[in-house]
Amino acid sequence: MLTLFYILSAITLGTAFLTIFSKNPIHSAIYLVLCFFSIAGHYLMFNAQFLAIVHIIVYSGAIMILMLFTIMLMNLNKEGEKSKNAWSQIAAVISFCLLALVLLATFIKAQQPEYNYATKGADFQSIKVLGQVLLNDYMVPFEFASVLLLVSMIGAVLLSKKEHINN
Amino acid sequence: MENILEQIGIDNYIYLSTLLFCVGAFGVLYRRNAIVMFMSIEIMLNAVNLLLVAFSTYHQDAAGQVFVFFSMAVAAAEVAVGLAILVAVYRNIKNIDIDNLKKLKG
Amino acid sequence: MDTNLALLLLLAPLAGFLLNIFIGKKLSGNVSGILGSVAVAVSFAVTLKFFLQVNGGGEPINVNLFKWMTLANFDVNFAFQLDQLSLLWLMFVTGIGTLIHIYSISYMHGDENIHKYFGYLNLFVFFMITLVMGSNLLIMFIGWEGVGLCSYLLIGFWYKNHDFNDAAKKAFIMNRIGDLGFLIGIFIIGYLFHSVDYIDIKNAITSGNLDIDMTWLGIATLCLFIGACGKSAQIPLYTWLPDAMAGPTPVSALIHAATMVTAGIFMITRLNFLFDLTPDVQNIIAIVGAFTSLIAASIGLAQNDIKKVLAYSTVSQLGLMFLALGLGAYHVAVFHVITHAFFKACLFLGSGSVIHAMHGEQDMRYMGGLRKVMGVTFITFLISTLAISGLPPFSGFFSKDEILMTAFHHNKVLWVVGSIASIMTAFYMFRLLYLTFYKDFRGTEEQKKHLHESPSLITFPLIVLAILALVGGAISLPGHSWLNEYLSPILTNHIEHHELGTTAYMLMGIAIIGALIGIGIAYFKYIKQGFVPGKDEEITGFSKVLYNKFYVDEIYTAIIVKPIYALGAFFKNVTEVAFSGFIFGLGRLANALSTQGKVIQNGSIGFYLLVFVLGICSIIAYIFLK
Amino acid sequence: MDVSFILIILLFGAVATYFVGDKWASKAALIFSTCAFAATLYVIYRYNMGEKVSYLQTWMSRPRIVIGLQADGMSLLMLLLTTALTPIIVLTSFGNLFPKSRSFYALILFMAFAMAGTFLAVDGLLYYIFWELSLIPIYFIALIWGSGEAERRKKDVVKFFIYTFAGSLFMLVAFIYLYTKTGSFLNLHLYNAKLTDTEQLWIFLGFFLAYAIKIPIIPFHTWQANVYQKAPAAGTMLLSGIMLKMALYSIIRWQLPIAPKAAHDYKYIFIALCVAGVIYGSILALKQTNLKKLLAYSSLAHVGLIAAGAYTLTIDGLRGAFVQMIAHGFVVVGLFYAAEIISRRYKTEEIAEMGGIRIQSAKFASMFMILVMASVALPGTFNFIGEFELLYSLAQANIWLAVLGGTTIILGAFYMLRMFQQVMLGDKGTKVFKDVTFGEGFTFVLIIAVLLFFGLYPRPITDFVTPSLQKVLVYINQIN
């Protein structure tokens, strides 16, 4: 299993980097889809099948398609982007290193987790259980999430509508 | 059912998520294309989601996974609105290079 | 009964003032005049009643109205006190006041604001009575400042002329300098004695067990003396009095000769028990008095304005009174105040009569020969001049001689100074007399045609005052002095009796000879030689210095007024700008900081993100990696 | 009926005045302010009968803020000053035809409300709210209805606003610090706060900055003359007659009892600063060519003396300060009104362009003369009582301070008489001065009557305020 984890992790990080370094946004998007799939693989390793499915549907299916459409809509599928100036790139690299250093240092410095992992034995992540938790304990946030989605849909429609300034 | 973490260890997931998050942040800083920056943000969100699921398993508690659902919902909403804004911006200045969006200065 | 009468005495002039101010405009000038005169005459009548009562051995009258102020150390009552000293003062204040009111009816006839004139004059009498009657220093201070206000109003009575207004303003401000001294004196006395009542202070002192800091007491009496200097026109605050002659002549007679300017002497006599405790201050008073007397007399030698001469003569006589006060001879000073009130009022009113006849001309160079036309005025004027020159048997002789005799016994230098001043007085007074009444008329033909003796309303007060100037000395004859006995309850120190021995007669002789020398020189110069002072620009040498009053006004302007204005200009142009600039500078600093801060807000999202990430890094590092 | 009722009348009056419309606004304002005055008299009567007229009501429990309106001698006296001057100030505006007059009169009443609240508040934060609230109406009054070129006026008024506002923030900081120490804003709790010497000094300075700007004490006075000149007469009267008294009152109510040790330790510095202001203001007044500016600087000198008296920490100084606050309030309103009448008729504020008024209106000249004499503290006027007590308290601190402070007697006479001469006296010029109307004369008579009556019989005021001053003085002298 550990081997699998390492392979998946390598894919995840690698495609993430490729997403960033690809000149062409389309390529970026494709690498990102790969990245999401690898994350879904992680979810499957956790035995969270439902989440993995949802993840693939939402991210790879919905979000990334949306992005690809946008890219195509804007006709950005070429490598025309000017790269940032050298100072900005250096600054980005430095802050990346710094952030990684700080976060890793924090986690390393933090108290080590216990390794005798509890196994309740009870099912906690099947669709049935998740559904119960979601609609019993988290009923109100769930409804709010739906409202949020509705609002964002309306907002997106309004924003992308063509404005007639000179009427 | 045996716990997957017994074989891999929670700390590996922590490091993975951290790195993934940093990569996302790096992407935001490194690129000027707004859409790629959005993708980087998605990477960061996913890093967090991954960690949430890992801890959900660690604690054997469904709440973490529920939270990931919400996070996904928010991400979807965010992308929808964000892309709409980008489209609007693109209509006005004909590109989405964030270095050109400097009107909001003091 | 006594309380009501005392209030009547006080409030009658106030009622006159209110009536004249509020309904006077509807009355004719004569009615206002009569109203004003009656108001003061009522006061005089009441005063006379009390005076006879107290002189016959009655108790002083005390009137306590209400508690006025409460301070941490002492209370101040609104209270009045009618004892020997205040009644004596009231006698001549209201007496001469009545005469001058009567005189004014004719003198001010036809002035458009005559009702206001009488109103102000009544108000003055009211404040003067308050000053004299008050039973503590603060009530006296009400009167003290009140008479200053009336003086201001009356000097500037003809307010269309800005020179007169300047004179009025100068009088008020000079007085205020003294008033500040007075106020500080009151503070110290209140603090030391826990009271400002005369009786309380006197009791505290006479009780014997006085436990106060003598240095502070000295400062207090010195401050009070500064107050007296302001009101009674002593060096260095005397310059307002000659300028005050801008007012109508009866005002000069009443306020600036007979009554208000003697307030300083009244105050010091009133507080004789305090001044007796501070001999150093007494010495200062004596020296200041003597030199004021000398300097004012010497300036008087060269003046050509008839009223100015009289004004400097007043300053000089006041100086003599202060000399007496400084020597501890309060009764002598009071004696001279009274005789001086008679003859100086008479002189001023006489000069008023002359000015009236001359249609406002005050310069002696354009007078002369008036003796023939103005017989009554001349005779009364002559009597008063003889009195002020100190010739027997006129009243001035007795009082002035007493002062000089006291000075001789204490300090020969002061005696010499006083004597020289007296000789000068005799000279310039006769110079005045000769220039005005003798020889031929030097004015215009137009003026000559209108020369006339003044009406009886003017001559009547002159005659009364001349008689008083003639016989006034009787109240304190050498050897037997009614005044000394009368005042003895007021004065704590025993009155010195100078033996009528050889020294006394010798001193009298010297005084008479001195006066005669002065008169002789005047006679020689102005009658024999027929000298008439030249035009202003012809005056040269030392007499020019004298004519210009030693340039004291100019010096004061240069060393006090100008620097204050310069300081004002400095404040206005430098410090105000600096303060204001500092505040604006703070504003500009904030502005500049925000301009600099704006650079950070450059609109670049990448930069914001970078700062954002770095910020998160530092926060995490701060929280977890301390 | 307690003191909150008066505040309600004023606030309701402000709203009602706004809604009755431009035509009736001035009358409505007069009626409501007079009602407030009558109510104040009734409250004082009840207070003298020993009945309870304070108002306490918890507003928030966390942080603990109380709507507390205190009624003791000090606050009731200042309340009386406010409600007595407000109708007079409304009366003085009758002759002016303002645009948008309903807003103008509503703002006057609102300002009276805020100032009355400041005088009454017992809770520090409430006090601070009222304190700042009073700044808003005067800002608009000066900005909208002021005189002179709009740009310059805006600059001066905004400067005034920011300046006083910034100063007050230091006071707020002091209050918040005190809250962290005591857990309360109530003044009695603050009086008893155990503070170290250093804390006391900083708190003292925080208060001082707020008050020194408002009073103003040099060198914080630079806003004053310009605003007094530019504001409409009613605004100037509100500012000089009542608003700066807020700061003087607050010195005695808040600053001194909260930080008594600092007050005792550094009192000579502050007295010296105030006395320097007296001389500085007097000398500057001599150089002014603008009538309103001259009065502004004379006001600077007088309030400097009041503040100096308060900082002497003696009963005489505190009482003198209160007496002089009342007296100065009336005198300065009268003088500014006179200046307003002159400038209304002559269309100028330059002294050099005036003159010859006495010959045309003797009545006006006499009333102006009385006000001038009151201003220079002639005995018999109310100002004399105040100035006497203040100078006496200075003499207790140090005789030289009294001498220096006393120069106001001389210099005051100097510049006031000089001004009087140039403005009123002299021969008739070309300009026509209409005689005062009945309304104008009536206003003057009201003011003069107050000044003369209390000048002769000040005890209703002094006896009323003394007991509460003694109570405060206990806290001031409580140095541990």
UniProtKB/TrEMBL annotation, chain A:
Record key words, sorted: Cell membrane, Membrane, NAD, Quinone, Transmembrane, Transmembrane helix
Protein name: NADH-quinone oxidoreductase subunit J
Record EC number: 7.1.1.-
Superkingdom classification of source: Bacteria
Role: NDH-1 shuttles electrons from NADH, via FMN and iron-sulfur (Fe-S) centers, to quinones in the respiratory chain. Couples the redox reaction to proton translocation (for every two electrons transferred, four hydrogen ions are translocated across the cytoplasmic membrane), and thus conserves the redox energy in a proton gradient.
UniProt similarity note: Belongs to the complex I subunit 6 family.
Record localization: Cell membrane
The keyword Transmembrane appears for this protein: yes
Catalytic activity: a quinone + NADH + 5 H(+)(in) = a quinol + NAD(+) + 4 H(+)(out)
Pfam families membership: Oxidored_q3 (PF00499)
UniProt source species: Flavobacterium suaedae
TM helices/strands, residue ranges: 6-22, 29-46, 52-74, 86-108, 138-159
Membrane topology designation: Multi-pass membrane protein
Automatic annotation (TrEMBL), chain B:
Keyword line: Cell membrane, Membrane, NAD, Quinone, Translocase, Transmembrane, Transmembrane helix, Transport
Subcellular location: Cell membrane; Membrane
Listed EC numbers: 7.1.1.-
Signal peptide: none
Listed InterPro entries: NADH_UbQ_OxRdtase_chain4L/K (IPR001133), NUOK/Mnh_C1-like (IPR039428)
Keyword Protein transport carried by entry: no
Alphabetical list of Gene3D superfamilies matching this protein: 1.10.287.3510
Catalytic activity: a quinone + NADH + 5 H(+)(in) = a quinol + NAD(+) + 4 H(+)(out)
Membrane topology (UniProt): Multi-pass membrane protein
Pfam families recorded: Oxidored_q2 (PF00420)
Chief location of this protein within or outside the cell: membrane
Transmembrane segments: 12-30, 35-55, 67-90
Subunit structure: NDH-1 is composed of 14 different subunits. Subunits NuoA, H, J, K, L, M, N constitute the membrane sector of the complex.
Classification via HAMAP family: NDH1_NuoK (MF_01456)
Assigned protein family: Belongs to the complex I subunit 4L family.
Cited function: NDH-1 shuttles electrons from NADH, via FMN and iron-sulfur (Fe-S) centers, to quinones in the respiratory chain. The immediate electron acceptor for the enzyme in this species is believed to be a menaquinone. Couples the redox reaction to proton translocation (for every two electrons transferred, four hydrogen ions are translocated across the cytoplasmic membrane), and thus conserves the redox energy in a proton gradient.
Protein name: NADH-quinone oxidoreductase subunit K
Species for this entry: Flavobacterium suaedae
Gene assigned in the entry: nuoK
Automatic annotation (TrEMBL), chain C:
Subcellular localization(s) per the UniProt record: Endomembrane system; Membrane
Principal subcellular localization: membrane
Alphabetic keyword roster: Membrane, Transmembrane, Transmembrane helix
Residue intervals of the NADH-Ubiquinone oxidoreductase (complex I) chain 5 N-terminal domain: 68-118
Domain NADH:quinone oxidoreductase/Mrp antiporter transmembrane span(s) in chain numbering: 135-425
Transmembrane segments: 6-24, 31-52, 87-105, 117-135, 141-159, 180-196, 216-241, 253-275, 281-302, 309-327, 333-352, 373-394, 414-437, 458-483, 503-524, 564-585, 605-625
Organism domain of life: Bacteria
Annotated membrane topology: Multi-pass membrane protein
UniProt keyword Membrane, yes or no: yes
A Pfam family: Proton_antipo_N
PANTHER family, per the entry: NADH-UBIQUINONE OXIDOREDUCTASE CHAIN 5
Name of this protein: NADH dehydrogenase subunit L
Gene: nuoL
Automatic annotation (TrEMBL), chain D:
Membrane topology: Multi-pass membrane protein
NCBIfam families named in the record: NDH_I_M
Domain of life: Bacteria
TM spans (from-to): 6-21, 28-45, 65-91, 103-122, 128-148, 160-180, 200-221, 233-256, 268-287, 294-315, 321-343, 364-385, 397-417, 438-457
NADH:quinone oxidoreductase/Mrp antiporter transmembrane domain residues: 124-408
Intracellular or extracellular location(s): Endomembrane system; Membrane
Main location: membrane
InterPro entries xrefs: NADH_Q_OxRdtase_chainM/4, NADH_UbQ_OxRdtase, ND/Mrp_TM
UniProtKB keywords: Membrane, Transmembrane, Transmembrane helix
Similarity annotation: Belongs to the complex I subunit 4 family.
Species, as recorded: Flavobacterium suaedae
UniProt-listed Pfam families: Proton_antipo_M (PF00361)
Protein name (record): NADH-quinone oxidoreductase subunit M
